[in-house]
Amino acid sequence: MFSGSLDLTDRYVWDVVFPSGPGALATPQHAFYLQADRSVAPGERHFYSSLGHAKRTYDGWVSDSAAALSGRPSNFDQAIWGVGVLSLTLTNHLLFYTGLHYTGEYLWQQRIGLARSTNADLRDWQRLEAPILQPAPPYRMAEKDECGFGPIFRDPAPFIGDDGRLHVAFAARLADVPAPHNACIGHAVAINDELTDWAMLPPLVDGSDRYSEMEVPQVIRHGGLWYVFFTVHAMHYNLGWAEKVGDARPGLHCYVGPTLNDCRVPVNNHGNVWPSTVLRGPRLFGNPSGNRFKAQGWVDSMDIPGAGGLSAVIMLDLNGDNVIMIRA
């Protein structure tokens, strides 16, 4: 299960995503991932990260030699973090990404940028100069909270809502909830065709009093329900919530509901799909077969030369408020 199929030995590879949307193919012919050169220390890789791209061929995955997006010094996107790719058609692609800007005292301001491509091979990205989304109520804007934590406003996940409009989910913290357990999956909707103006909405998943950090969301519409997936480390559990659900479980989580305004039910009674500290950020892709989706994540073994990259494909069964890994 943990033998990566995109092991790039000269770089760290993490946070793999696949294009979604009506223009995406049924299989993940393209993959995007964060990358950093292995000459930097593992703990420093986030500050030197760029966006890699690979295309799957009959002979396996082939990665580009150049980064799809690299950091721009002195800009809001000095380094690139979590991304989401939405293919509206085969030649109209939107890439939402997290831009990091160093503000001092080991704090990195996080804002969300946008790039577009009309290339069928998902190359030649043209990005906007300014961020399209930045922290605003109901999400916390302070660079450092009362616990000394830095900001969270990252990992955009674009999707089309029932209203036909473009929505974005993202990792954030709530402004009106005391730290540390004020994490949420935020929500915004575009209000112009240029995608430069957005309205902030209440969170898709309110994790306050449960988690201090929720990451890499993905939003799936299936069987008349909305599923919001995200990752939580065990150390970010509120002890009271861990006791209530039986344990602090690392790995993929999911909440479900009938509408985007009502994704309140933790799947499997506790919210965790499958506990793992090695398989990270599984992403569902392609068309389901009944309730079964393919998913693929990345292997978190950054201290092992040659490790990282894509995991093997797994299968998830989405059946109401039960989400089960059925093959590993």
Descriptive key words:
328 residues, 5-stranded antiparallel beta sheet, 4-stranded antiparallel beta sheet, 1 helix, 21 strands, 48% strand
Can you describe this structure in just a few lines?
The strands form five sheets. Strands 13, 14, 15, 16 and 17 form a five-stranded antiparallel sheet that branches. This protein has 328 residues and is mostly beta strands.
Walk me through this protein's architecture.
- The protein has one helix at residues 239-245, and strands at residues 11-17, 30-37, 50-57, 60-63, 79-89, 92-104, 107-117, 126-127, 153-160, 166-173, 183-190, 198-206, 215-222, 225-232, 251-257, 265-266, 272-275, 279-289, 292-299, 314-319, 322-327.
- The chain is built from one helix and 21 strands.
- A hairpin with a 5-residue loop joins strand 9 and strand 10.
- The strands form five sheets. Strands 13, 14, 15, 16 and 17 form a five-stranded antiparallel sheet that branches.
- 2% of the residues lie in helices and 48% in strands.
- The chain starts with 10 loop residues before the first strand and ends with a strand.
- By secondary structure, the protein is an all-beta fold.
- The relative contact order is 0.14.
Number of strands: 21
Low-pLDDT runs: none
Mean pLDDT: 89
Largest sheet: 5 strands, antiparallel
Rg, rounded, reads 18 Å
Look at the helices and sheets and give the structural class: mainly beta
User: Element order, helices and strands?
Assistant: EEEEEEEEEEEEEEHEEEEEEE
Relative strand content = over 45%
Number of helices: 1
Q: What is the helical fraction, as a range of percent?
A: under 10%
Instruction: State the separation between the terminal residues, measured CA to CA.
Output: 6 Å
Q: Based on CA inertia axes, which overall geometry fits?
A: globular
